[in-house]
Each structure stands twice: as structure tokens, then as C-alpha cells.
Design brief:
This protein is an alpha/beta fold. The protein contains 7 helices and 8 strands; from the N terminus they run E-H-E-H-E-E-E-H-E-H-E-H-E-H-H.
């Protein structure tokens, strides 16, 4: 008789305390398996170290990994509170294709019907992007930039073949540049959106053809 095993786990990684707070206080119901919400710390090196450490735990064998939090929009017409579903993440070390993006778009549109969802490449940076640098990154084809998603997914797929994705909430954009996250209306709007994304993440996780442990 084959022993029953539980559903595959999900690791959700974010960088900042305010992002972790939003996810921790959001709707945690409906998860299809064990869920770990990891605060990695800011920047690609911190993200890589944290994800490597956590995925070394046998309890997370086969875990799907989803990077989330805030980002800077690169395209004109983006607004704080818009959502970005990455088709791939990029940084100078490589590109990682995301899995199940159509399902994520569908579930996010259902959970947040008044929010615009953008899809396209999400690029990584080792610093906060401001001013003219946005246009340079937009010219590469990327639609948004953050500091941790690319490093998170590179670390995740390096340790094992697994489903990965990245969903970010725009906190500033070319026409809505912020000085400090959470101190103006755009930051508050992005925080509220991030609090509402977990049900969509759980539906994405349930839809994946994940192996059972």
C-alpha cells in the first residue's frame, strides 16, 4: 500500500518588512498545502542567501516559489497599485521563465477586478531605479524592475527543478515617482493591493502539476 503524502509546499518570498506585514495580515484561507512566507531582506544578495537557506530544509522539497512585493513600473501609463505578473525574470546572471502566468493573471483579475494587471519581463537591479534609468530598462523590453525577484527565482531553480513565478505591485511609476514607500498615497495603495493577493497565489499553486511528496 502506497503511503499517502501531503500536498507540495509553497514558498512566498518578499524583501521588506512592510511587504511581509501585508502578506501576514492578508487572507490566508484556501491554501492547498503548507505555505511559508519568507522575508529575505533587501537586495539580490540577501534574497539569494535567504532562499538558499530556506530551501535546504527537507520540508520544502519540491516547493513552488513565488517572489512578490513592490516594484517600480517602467512603462508610461502605469500607476501605483497596478499588478505585474512576470513572464520571465532577468538579471545579468540569467533569465528564468515563469510558470502558470495565465492562471495568475486570471486569478488576480478575479481577486482585484478594479486593478490593471500587466504582463511581461521583470528585470532585476542591485539598487533603487530612478529617473532616466527607467527609460534605459524599458528599452530592453522589461516592464518593471525590482531588486529581489530575479535573484529569488535563480536561486530557486538552481537548487531543483520547480515551478516559479513573480508577482509585483507597482509602488511607483514614471509619472508617479515616490521618495519613500508607505509615506504617500501610492505606497498605501500598493500595500492594500498586496494584502489581497494571497488567494490568487493559492489558486495558482493548486493549479500546478506539482509532484506529491
Amino acid at each position: 500500500m502506497t503511503p499517502q503524502t501531503g500536498p507540495s509546499p509553497l514558498l512566498i518570498a518578499c524583501a521588506l518588512g512592510i511587504e511581509h506585514l501585508a502578506l501576514r495580515t492578508g487572507d490566508r484561507g484556501g491554501a492547498g498545502g503548507p505555505v511559508t512566507v519568507l522575508r529575505t531582506g533587501m537586495g539580490p544578495r540577501a534574497a539569494e542567501r535567504s532562499v538558499d537557506r530556506v530551501l535546504a530544509d527537507p520540508a520544502l522539497d519540491g516547493a513552488a516559489v513565488l517572489a512578490t512585493g513592490f516594484c517600480a513600473g517602467l512603462a508610461p501609463g502605469m500607476h501605483p497599485g497596478d499588478l505585474v505578473v512576470a513572464e520571465e525574470t532577468r538579471d545579468p546572471r540569467g533569465t528564468v521563465a515563469c510558470v502558470g502566468t495565465d492562471r495568475l493573471v486570471k486569478e488576480l483579475a478575479r481577486a482585484l477586478p478594479r486593478r490593471t494587471v500587466h504582463t511581461g519581463p521583470l528585470t532585476g537591479s542591485d539598487h533603487v531605479v530612478r529617473g532616466p534609468e527607467r527609460a534605459d530598462l524599458l528599452a530592453t523590453g522589461a516592464i518593471a524592475v525590482d531588486m529581489e525577484s530575479a535573484a529569488t527565482l535563480l536561486s530557486a531553480v538552481r537548487t531543483a527543478a520547480r515551478p516559479v513565478a513573480a508577482v509585483r505591485v507597482v509602488v511607483d511609476a514614471p509619472e508617479h515617482e515616490l521618495v519613500r514607500i508607505g509615506t504617500v498615497r501610492g505606497g498605501i495603495s500598493a500595500f492594500r493591493v498586496l494584502r489581497s493577493v494571497l488567494p490568487a497565489f493559492f489558486e495558482w499553486h493548486r493549479s500546478l502539476p506539482l509532484p506529491r511528496r
